[in-house]
Write a structure and sequence with these properties.
Blueprint lengths: L2 H10 L2 H5 L5 H6 L5 E5 L11 H6 L2 E5 L7 H4 L5 E4 L5 H7 L3 E4 L9 H4 L5 E2 L2 H11 L5 H9 L6 E5 L22 H14 L3 E4 L1
Parallel strand pairs: 1-2, 1-6, 2-3, 3-4, 4-5, 6-7
Pfam family, one: Glyco_transf_29
Membrane topology: Single-pass membrane protein
GO molecular function, one term: sialyltransferase activity
């Protein structure tokens, strides 16, 4: 697809055309088979932790959006996959240096050409987003969408870091829970249920 074709498909919300830029979900999940995955959220509380070495020791490190990493001691340094729902500036892209970018947002008009043509690019299906939104009764966070996706994989272990459901707010911005469209109480309940159903998922604050 040319850049012009991409812009037209994005403007017209031509989902079939945009999906042709993406690796298949089965292929993406296949890359996680047997792996120890660290999914790193952006809770401010993680900054006070010493989880950095454990995060970097995982087979696959997945970070979210602008992926603040204030210290290797708390956050580690590696980013294998970056799960995005926001446009990323060149400085953040260079700093994070992900091997693969996943576009998790249903807002296709935010998707940029550089992301859509990056190696191994993945576009999360709208149907999956809508199903999770209906389950939660509110728009899901990027973290919740990733947990839902990871649970479908054959990963050996899924560790969640930096997820306190906005109790300590976010390192990536100054907004409060009242300024975002998510229901963090419902997400916390949903994650707790997922952990009971799937013993691979470990919640490490």
């Amino acid at each position: 697809m040319t850049r012009l074709g991409f812009l037209i498909a994005r403007t017209l919300r031509d989902e079939d055309a945009l999906q042709r830029l993406s690796v298949a979900q089965d292929s993406l999940l296949g890359d996680l088979s047997g792996k120890h995955v660290a999914l790193v959220g952006n809770a401010r509380a993680l900054e006070a932790s010493g989880h950095g070495a454990a995060i970097d020791a995982a087979d696959m490190v997945i970070r979210i959006n602008r992926a603040p990493m204030p210290s290797p001691h708390s956050h580690g340094t590696r980013t294998d996959w970056l799960a995005l729902a926001v446009r990323l500036g060149s400085a953040d892209r260079d700093r994070i240096a992900p091997r693969r970018v996943l576009w998790m947002s249903h807002k296709r008009k935010r998707l940029d050409w550089q992301t859509a043509t990056s190696p191994g690019f993945y576009l999360h299906p709208l149907g999956d987003y809508t199903a999770l939104k209906e389950t939660l009764g509110a728009p899901p966070t990027t973290g919740a969408i990733m947990i839902d996706l990871l649970s479908r994989s054959d990963a050996a272990r899924i560790d969640l870091y930096g997820f306190d459901f906005f109790a300590s707010l976010s390192l990536s911005g100054s907004r409060t829970a009242g300024n975002v469209p998510h229901d963090f109480g419902k997400e916390a309940e949903w994650v707790a249920k997922q952990r009971k159903l799937d013993k691979r998922i470990r919640h490490i604050h």
